[in-house]
Write a structure and sequence with these properties.
Number of helices: 5
Radius of gyration: 18 Å
Low-confidence stretches: none
Shape: elongated
Strand content: 25-35%
Distance between the termini: 50 Å
Strand order of the largest sheet: 1-4-3-2
Number of strands: 8
Oligomer: single chain
Length: 158
Amino acid sequence: MQKITPCLWFDGEAEEAAQFYVQLFKNSNILDVTHYGESGPGTEGQVLTVEFELDGQSFTALNGGAQFTFNEAVSMQVDCEDQAEVDRLWDALTADGGVESQCGWLKDKYGLSWQIIPSALPRLIGGPDPQKAQRAMEAMLQMKKIDIDELQRAYDAG
């Protein structure tokens, strides 16, 4: 069991969101669902919490109400092996009301921020040649979804 578990606050969509996230990542599943009882504070029988794992990382989704919403101060950063994984996750997370942002960031349809980052990115923007790394950084700053080939072209240019 992990010692620290992120708790994500939803306004009634905790179970739906957990099911959506679980289908996106391998080694993921719903572990437990609890419901409000007659003493509340939510409606009796409504989902209170959903315990779930995403690729072995535990999370709790809580139906806490409309008092709080997600913002970019906290995001889920996903290390992607290749462009196919970047594309698959980007497309799924921006579908049905998700919003693209800059530099690999997006908000999904629930308002949760994600960073969809190819593992090549740190190698290119942190490369040993500062001029090459700067060109890759400048290219990345112009992107919404990260394009590995475009980063590599910028890195190799000159």
